[in-house]
Amino acid sequence: FCFEQKTFIFTKQIVQGKDKHTMKRDSSLVTKAAITAVGSYVPEEVLTNHDLEQMVDTNDEWIRSRTGISERRIAKNPQHSTGFMAVKAAQNLCQNNHIDPSTIDLVLVATITPDYQVSSTAPYVATQIGATNAFAFDISAACSGFLYGMSTAASFISSNQYKKVLLIGADKMSSIIDYTDRATCIIFGDGAGAALFEASDNGFGFENAIHGNDGIGREYLNIQEGGSLYPINENTFNAGKHYLNQEGKTVFKYAVKHMAETSKKVIQNNALTAEEIDYVIAHQANKRIIDATTNHLGVAEEKVLTNIHKYGNTTAATLPLLLADFESTFKKGDKLIFTAFGGGFTWGAAYLTWNYDYQN
Ligand code: COA
Predict the structure, then answer these.
(1) What is the DSSP secondary structure assignment for residue 72, as one 8-state letter?
(2) Which residue ranges of the chain lie beneath pLDDT 70?
């Protein structure tokens, strides 16, 4: 596989001492990718704030006021892994939209909770859904995984060599959470969402994106044990280093700063006004992060879509779960701004015009 030189111009700029990668396009030459279908899956089991009160020293009022979360879904069945949820979301998409899985060319799974450290999850998902003609790989960009995947999917479509790209964001966060750590366990939930990318037939679709990162982030949001730097040993295991660890306040500040700055830049690059934007699809990390970010953009509150109250932070699944939950709200031509921030640190924003009117 190789990108056609003429279709994309990747520019690398130094912005405030950091690398920023901006994907520009010459619209006369590019095959525009569009989202043509979405699907989702969340586990049936609900973990409420009141349930958490029985597990750690916390209370419903604190969690709701500090995060906006009331409950989250947890896949209690050990067999209901990230791969299982991703398969369910993909099947939901294919069945509801009469997509023959054998026509899918590429399956991407964005996740930080793969079923196995080795092998990647996407090939399993492709096989399980019957995407027999697809190749498949995982994307690891934490909570930005689906957003990075959107640019990846759009690039493969624009190459004109791939017609159907299935992008799934899926995470079983409960598998890496320490349920004695009250500052972390209240935030996360499990789930999966999927979107199909195809060449646009009406001019609407993925317009452009900006992505950024800063390696300092691994100090503040990580799982220390189990990688090549700190392979598993008894001491680190006993110290709980195999669980997700975060410095919440620092992550909060970086998240707001970078999601706001990058979204603004995307809005500017596309000569949009806040009034012209129909919806903001922001990573569901914390309602206060979403509010602070979107306040910077000047977008009216009702245009900022949220479902964090019922799912918590499902990492790579938050953006596609929003798409699935609000699919019936979107109209052809709606202007959507996506933004996300996650471990690494990774972040970005994208502009997409919605491709279809919902049909039941
Ligand atoms: N219930 C009750 N009290 C809690 C609590 C809980 N679940 N968790 C923490 N506290 C306590 C703290 O111990 C602290 O007590 P102290 O003042 O006696 O020391 C107090 O509440 C304030 O803690 P603080 O960490 O300052 O709270 P916060 O307002 O920053 O909220 C987070 C904590 C984690 C909710 C918030 O920082 C956050 O959401 N950060 C971003 C995390 C994130 O999005 N991660 C994923 C990135 S994609």
Answers:
(1) E
(2) 1-29
Neighbours of 143 (CB within 10 A): 31
Residues 6+ apart with CB under 8 A from 172: 75, 80, 81, 82, 85, 113, 190
Q: Classify residue 3 by its DSSP letter.
A: -
Residue nearest to atom 12 of ligand 1 (CA): 183
Token pair 């109250």: residue = 309
Give the number of other Cβ atoms within 10 Å of residue 200's Cβ.
18
Of 249, 257, 319, the one to substitute when testing ligand 1's pocket (max ligand atoms within 8 A of C-beta) is 249
pLDDT of 201: 94
Per-residue model confidence (pLDDT) at position 27: 54
Cα-to-centroid distance, 186 and ligand 1 (Å): 9
Contact 249 CB / ligand 1 (< 6 Å): yes
Mutational test site, ligand 1, from 252, 283, 341, max ligand atoms within 8 Å of CB:
252
How far the first Cα of the chain sits from its last, in Å, is 37
pLDDT at residue 295, rounded to an integer: 95
- Contact residues for 114 (Cβ-Cβ < 8 A; gap 6+): 82, 83, 120, 121, 138
Reading the block at residue 150, the tokens are 């959107």
pTM score of the predicted model: 0.93
Is 283 a known active-site residue? Answer: yes
Cβ atoms 340, 144 nearer than 8 A: yes
Helix (H, G, I), strand (E, B) or coil at 234: helix
Helix, strand, or coil here: 240?
coil
Q: Any catalytic annotation for residue 143? A: yes
**Cβ atoms within 10 Å, residue 357:** 11
pLDDT single digits (tens) 52-108: 999 999 999 999 999 999 999 999 999 999 999 999 999 999 999 999 999 999 999
**Cβ neighbours of residue 214 closer than 8 Å, sequence gap 6 or more:** 18, 254, 344, 345
DSSP 18-36: EEEEEEEE-TTT---EEEE
